[in-house]
Amino acid sequence: MARTDFRLRVLVEPRHGAGYDQLLALALAVEDAGFEAFFRSDHLLGVDPADRTYRPTDCWTTLGGLARDTRRIRLGALVGAATFRAPGLLATIVASVDQMSGGRVELGLGTGWYEREHAAFGIPFPGTGERFDRFEETLAIVTGLWRTPEGEIFSFQGKHFSLDENGAPPRTVQRPHPPVIIGGAGPKRTPAIAARFADEFNSALGVDPRERFAIFGRACEAIGRDPDEARRSVVLPVACGTTSADIERRAAVMGSDLIRDNAVIGTPAEVTERVAGLRDAGADTVYLHIYDIDDLEHIALLGAEVVPSAVSGG
């Protein structure tokens, strides 16, 4: 069942990367437009690995800067690659940004999928089964460190990671810790891991969200968790405009057929209608996925014409 506090957020994944000044300008536009949160992708290569114009930036370094340069919006990654950072380091990084933001950070995390990206930056990329194992251990370590009471010690012994008597775990502003977002299309392990650790379950692009939410609900019930404890979210690629020229221009930068086939490409009314449909399907949070990072007018239009009616349910 969808929550009454419906949230509309912006997720950016610029086709050619971006510098910090561009990301900040977009985040401030998102804040001014009335959105609830600004999220960015966690990638070091673009979809086209041969794109020589792509400018990589580290996700959490960027979010640390935005934590100081914004005031209201929540901030996060959707989703980060668990392969990129050691679990104890990740817990410390996210806790640091949570402190810098005054408690506005959320951690979206997945197994990592982009093999070419890992090869280009010298990051190990194990097979699927091992990535899931590492992902699960990473979540246990990160949340375990965050939940460790003051003055107590956290240790962990797993197949891939071990922590030996950490008596100085990183402290977060949010209690018990920043929200953890998990999603993906995996039929078994993804929902099972999310049932254990997720504060929000994100349905994968290109699948029926009702079905994914139902699978997640059954995974929660299997371990005795109330499924309604967690939020349910979806990503919606958007190319919105008031003229056909604006719509076509914004759609042209979307990239892959998967994205375009699952996008809403049209007027503000059409975007609002699609958001309402996702809300009816059980989503309480929708991430509008934006690809042109310099198109601040796009954000302003969505804020003026979509946010008020979508959030109110009108």
From TrEMBL:
Repeat as UniProt keyword: no
Record-linked Pfam families: Bac_luciferase
GO BP: any one term: alkanesulfonate catabolic process
Gene3D superfamilies reported in the protein's UniProt record: Luciferase-like domain (3.20.20.30)
Alphabetical UniProt keywords: Flavoprotein, FMN, Monooxygenase, Oxidoreductase
Stored SUPFAM superfamilies: Bacterial luciferase-like
GO molecular function per UniProt: alkanesulfonate monooxygenase activity
Domain Luciferase-like: 15-251
Protein name listed in UniProt: LLM class F420-dependent oxidoreductase
Native organism: Amycolatopsis bartoniae
